[in-house]
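Thread: benzoyl coenzyme A complex, take 2
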Amino acid sequence: MSIDYTSSIPNNVDLAGDRTLQRALEHWQPRFLNWWDDMGPDGSSTRDVYLRTAVSVEPSGWAHFDHVRMRDYRWGIFLAPQEAERQVNFGDHLGEPAWQEVPGEYRSTLRRIIVTQGDTEPASVEQQRHLGATAPSLYDLRNLYQVNVEEGRHLWAMVYLLHRHFGRDGREEAEALLERRSGDADNPRILGAFNEPTPDWLSFFMFTFCTDRDGKFQLCALAESGFDPLARTARFMLTEEAHHMFIGESGIGRILLRTAEVMRTHATDDPATLRRLGVIDLPTVQRYLNFHMSVTLDLFGSDLSSNAATFYSCGIKGRFAETRIEDDHRLRDATYPVLQIVDGALVPTQAPCLNALNEQLRDDYLKDTHGGVGRWNKLLERAGVDFRLSLPHKAFNRKIGPLAGVRVSPSGQVLSEAQWQVGVADWLPREEDRSFVRTLMGAVTEPGHYANWIASPKAGINQMPADFAYVRLD
Ligand code: BYC
Ligand code: FE
Ligand code: FE
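Output below.
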C-alpha cells in the first residue's frame, strides 16, 4: 500500500474516492499552512533539511530520507494497514467487530478525545518555534525540524478523523485546533504541559524525553481503540514517536557526557566552576527533569476519573498493551492502588480499577521512564562521575488530581508549606538556572561542530558521516 504523492494531500486512505472529504481537507490545508507560517519553526521556510518522510506505511517505506525544503514538506494522511476481522478487545462491547464508523452514542466522547490528542500536536510546534535560532549543531537542528514536521502530521491525522467521521462539528473542531495557541491567556491549548514555554535546548530534550513519551503511552492506549480508524492512525503515529524520545534521551545523554568530561578534566563538581567552564552542572539537569516529569505526570489526568472509566467501558480507549494483558478486559470487579493522603502520609489504597485507569497508565509510563534514567546513570557511571539522576516521586509538584492538594518532596515526603518553600529552590529550576542555560544557547552552523555544552552524537542520522550538512542554511 504505497502513498500517492501526486495528489495535493498524500494519503493511503483513498481520498480521491471521496470528493466531498477531499474538498473539505483541501479547504483546511491552506489554513494549516498559514498556521505553519505564523507558528511553525521560525525562519525555517527556505531551508533544505535532511528529513525522513513516509513513502509507504510498510516497515520498509516509512523512513525515506532526503533533503527537503521545509516549506515544501508534504504532510499526508497515513493509517496503518487494516487488520482483518479486528474486534473490540475490552469494555462492554468486548468481542464485537471493531467499528469502522463512529457509534452514534459515543460520538461526542470520541470527538473530545480526538480533539484533545490533536490539540497537543500543534501546541508542541508552537512551544518549540524559536529553538531553531539556537541549535547546538546542524544535526540537532535537523532533529528539531524532524519532530516539528511530524507533530504537524499528527495534527493532520486527527483532523482527517474529525473531517471524515464527525461532519460539521468535526470541521469546526479542526478550525479551532488552528486557533488555540500555546500559553495564550484567552485561548490556550487544552492540557497544562502544552502551555509551558520550551525556551532552551535543555527544556527541549527534557520535553521530548518526558512529554513525547506521554504521547507514546496515550497513543498506545488509543491504538487499542474499538474505533478502528483511530486505532490505525495511532499505530502509524507510534512509529514516529520512538525517534522523538530518542532525540530527548540521547540529547540529555550527550549533555551528561560533556559535563562529566569537564568535571573529570578539572577535577570539580562545583556548579559555579562548571558554569564558568561553559557546561551545565548536573543539579540543574536534575531540576529540569523534576519540572518536566511533574508537568507530564499531570497529563495522565486525575488518579480517579469517571471519564477514564467511560472511555474504557465504551471501548474507546484501552490500557497500555491491552491485548497482551491476561484478565477479563472488562474490569468491573478489579481494583488498582492509588495514592491517598491518610494522616499526612501517602498511602496506596485500592480503588475500582475502571476509575483508576489514568493512574495505571501513569504507572506504565513511569516504568518506561525509569529505564531511560537508568541508561543516563550508566553513562555517568562509565564516565567516572558519582552523581546520579533520579525521577521525582509521582506526587511531587502535581497540579492535577488529589495530589495537587499536598506538598511532596522529590523523594516522596509529605511536607508543610513552610518546608516546601525552603526546599523548592533545590527541586525546581530557579530563575538563575534558566538564565544561565540561556547564556549557553547560540547557533552552531558548521557541519560536524557542536556547542561546548553538548557532546557529539555516537552516530549520524541514517548513517550519514560526522560532517554531513543536515541542514543547508541559506
Ligand atoms: N491539563 O477526569 P480527568 C502527545 C482535565 S501527548 C489541563 O482526570 P480524563 C504529544 C480533563 O481534560 C498525548 N486539564 O481527565 C506529546 C477534564 O476536563 P473536562 C496527548 C486537564 O478525561 C508531545 C478534567 O480535567 N493525548 O501526543 O480522565 C508532543 C477532568 O480530568 C489535564 C492524550 O492526552 C491537564 N494536564 O483524562 C506532541 C489522549 N488533565 O473534560 C504531542 C487523549 C486533565 O472535565 N486525552 N484535565 O473539561 C485523554 O485521554 C484525556 O483527555 C486525558 C485526561 C488523559 C488527557
Ligand atoms: Fe505527536
Ligand atoms: Fe512526538
